[in-house]
Write a structure and sequence with these properties.
Chain A: It comes from Qipengyuania aquimaris. The complex is a heterodimer of chains A (about 325) and B (about 725). By secondary structure, chain A is of the alpha+beta class. Chain A has twelve helices and eleven strands. In chain A, helix 5 runs antiparallel to helix 8 (about 165-170). The longest helix of chain A has 20 residues, at about 310-325. Chain B has three domains: about 1-40 and about 445-580, Aldehyde Oxidoreductase, domain 4 (2-Layer Sandwich), CATH 3.30.365.10; about 45-145 and about 190-280, Aldehyde Oxidoreductase, domain 4; about 375-440 and about 580-729, Aldehyde oxidase/xanthine dehydrogenase, molybdopterin binding domain (Aldehyde Oxidoreductase, domain 4, 2-Layer Sandwich). Classes of the chains: A alpha+beta (about 325), B alpha+beta (about 725). The interface of A and B includes residues 125 and 235 of A.
Amino acid sequence: MRPFSYTRARTLDDAAQLTHDDTALAIAGGTNLLDLMKLQVETPETLADINRIGFGGIEDTDDGGLSIGALASNTETAVHPRVRSDYPVLARAILAGATQQLRNKATTGGNLCQRTRCFYFTNIDQPCNKREPGSGCGAIDGIAKLHAVLGTSDQCIATYPGDMAVALSALDAQVEIAKPGGDTRTVPVRDFHCLPGDTPWRENVLEEGELITAVALPAPVGGTQIYRKVRERSSYAFALVSVAAVVEIEHGKFTRADLAFGGLAHKPWHDPRIGEALIGKVPSEDLFDKAADILLEDARGFGENDFKIPLARRTLHAVLQNATEAAA
Amino acid sequence: MTVHFKQDKPDDSNRLDGMKQGVLGKSIPRVEGMAKVTGTAPYSAEYPMTDCAEGVLVTSTITRGNVVSIDKDSVLSMPGVLAVIDDPAMTTRAAQGTADEAPQQEPGTICYWGQPIALVVAETFEQARDAAKHLPIKYREDPGAPLDPQAVEAEEQEDETVRQGDLDHAMATAAHSVDVTYTTKGHASAAMEPHASIAQWDGDKLTVYASLQMLNYNISELADALGMEEKNVRLVSRFVGGGFGSKLGVSEDVVAAAIASKEVGRPVRIVMSRQQVFQCVMRRSETTQRLRLAADQSGKLIGFGHHALVSNLPGETFAEPVLQSSHFLYGGENRDLMLEVARIHRMTAGSVRAPGEAVGMPALEGAMDVLAEKAGIDPVELRLKNIPEEDPEEGLPFSSHKLAECLRLGAEAFGWDSGPRSPRHTCEGEWWVGTGMASAARVHNIAEAKARVTLKADGSALVETDMTDIGTGTYTILAQLAGEMLGLDPAQVLVELGDTKHPRGPGSGGSWGAASIGSAVYIACKAIREELGQRLGVGETELELKDGEAASGESLVSLLDGNDLSREGHYEPGDIKDDFTASGFGAFFAQVRVNRFTGETRVDRMLGAFGFGRVLNHKTARSQCLGGITWSIGVALTEALEFDPHEGHLVNCDLAEYHVPVHRDVPDLEVVLVEERDPAASPIQAKGIGELGMCGGAAAIANAIYNASGARIFDYPMTPDRILAAMPD
């Protein structure tokens, strides 16, 4: 850990001012950032504590949806009555992640911005294009069991490790962002994270000085909501593959099928073609296979993580079958 | 006054059973438990020190080569930095258990990625850590260091080799034969408390507070490293937050703290980071094991083969003793056993809980399940059929043997179905459900030990030894043992451990602690009883003591007449070690579920039945078994050290990525203690239980995975990727 200065921001403007250069970082729960600072993966000169700038509430929105403040803790969100009743996939995804102690500290905004758990990213004595552009990628022919099979580049095969954002992607939530100077903008969660491409250090669309203020959920979508997380041990492990599903079946046919996937890519993976292929169709093994074919059309393994391709197919089958049974 | 007893003969007098206090064996909670859970028990980094400087180890970022230069000046000007130390006396790895001499020194010579090469000392931990990361080091790399144990020519460990009869012929002619190869990945001890030391000098006298398991050896290792006389060294390790083998030998922090403290003239504390604990202390070697079993029509073994390949750094003497229990667990007159070590440049391999059986038994017991299936015999029955009358290689009698009883009692308590078995018999929703079992075996170790017992004039007692309690219950069982012998409530017995100013104990390791130090305390107490008996005019064997009084009604206080009565007990195992094959035995039963979509495996329930001599405290013994079974779950399903293929460094070096079982992975566990008296194990008829609970348990889970899902897997841990690859469609 490098020496750093700590400043408490009082307002959003304060926070924007304090974080408006590349040597400063905002800290909320710190559950990811502090670990990375100890490893010297992150070396901010200034930490701006944003815990007291507001934006911690969870409130109904005018269109019947729900706004979850950037600083609401993961625990607060997961236990919120409206989240539990109207967006159970979100509650389940959050509760599938980390531990109770971490969820008590972790926040909505921080969770969205958490960084990869790639072994080569977290070890500063190893090459990593994400941490040190141009240094190479240790994982591509190294230990890559946890790594991505979709949307990779020859620069980076890391995964986005979170669960919450996968559910938010299935729910088509919107990220509300405050720009320096007081303007705001809204980005769909599905577009918030980036693929590595030639800029693996760029993990999401936030620009310098921008801060997430809230995540807006649409009016309740109903349906069967499932979060399925596959992992070696049953808690405190990142997903090998996860699936968030909001699915509705009426008169024996899919009428809604919003699916998002974790553990497969540098971002929560959402492919609109999967829903399109399912809607209007009668659930069947063949249909589930077609959905999996679309998902995995361009999948590519790196040896150790080849298993993720059949595992994703099988997990998708399980989820769609569960949803079908729930609707019956 | 020291009473020395060398045990050459079995002792079936079972004297402890004739004592009157009635506290030995009772489920007494750990006496230091409250201090630990309230944070008042000082661990080694927590001793209050004035003016303590902080040290952070600097580790190598190359695999093999030399340090050419270290630019110390560039960090000495950083805030708070006091010194940069690369003294050739610093150690580059932990000593192996019972080494009794310094491990490899000269940190400028690099043998593995992550090896300590220097120490930065500063006013604060943060300053030291920052400077350590900034320290410019020039290396001369020696490329091409072998990293893959399969890719080098291995060295045979000749003292492990056994060739009896003709195994090839037995395999060719057997009614049933099995020839399978298992692999296991490396394991870490992953103790909660990291390795940590505070060193302090007073003239030429050195005191180090350190987290260590075997002070009696560690003091020699430290003194040797520093070129000092042991009498000038004191080690203190009163509370240890888990060791599991990783703290058997003196670790790099201990020696470095001593050197640094001398140089800066202040106490110096070093606490290893979690990553350093994983990367530069000890790993359990990965193994490749070929099992060959040849059986006649009835399932009786006529041939037994076990070859194992393990690895270690060049020059290290330790080789994971994979075959340890294979030598005697089952019969079979045609035998072929061999252990080989591949010399590779991964971090040091050494003892991790139950070295040998922890990985040897899961392979052997997996192969036995394959044989049971081939021969169409119930797996429990197959084991019962193959229990030898005597050690099949040495021809020695067993000191005691509870395997058959553990198998029968365990099967009954678990509700084992001995009917025909075929995979995929039960599906509950998405989950295949099945059962499996395995034998448990762990050799009995015992060592020389000394302890002083003092009956105080006020009628209380004091037990003193440098023995450690690594969370196992040593404080508690010694209070019970002395209480039983001297007729005292254990609350009246103060036990002082973990300080080399006391008589030398055996240290905690190899499950030998309780029987070894317990015997020394027993001998000291017996000598005190002899003296008390003389004062009362009765023989020691007739003396009855209870609640501080003799049967005659006279109190200990009046017998002592204002004086303390002290005796040192010195236990030494004699011919007893050579005349018998001694082992703890047991049986595991598991029910697991395997997800038919994802291959995820969860243990539903698990039971272990264990026979390991006299039980000194049912609660602490049971807790050791629960911990062992929990480790079995890790070995079976999740635990695996992953090494980078190009540089050999450990990549998953924290508790988020090295997957020990979490609470939710550990279901209701049941433990059946099959109490016995082993007269040849120790004067107190006890063996060890710290490791037996994990020696074979992983195979019960693996065999249950097969019974549940039809996936017969030969690679531990059985993670979803491996299960999916092996699961029939």
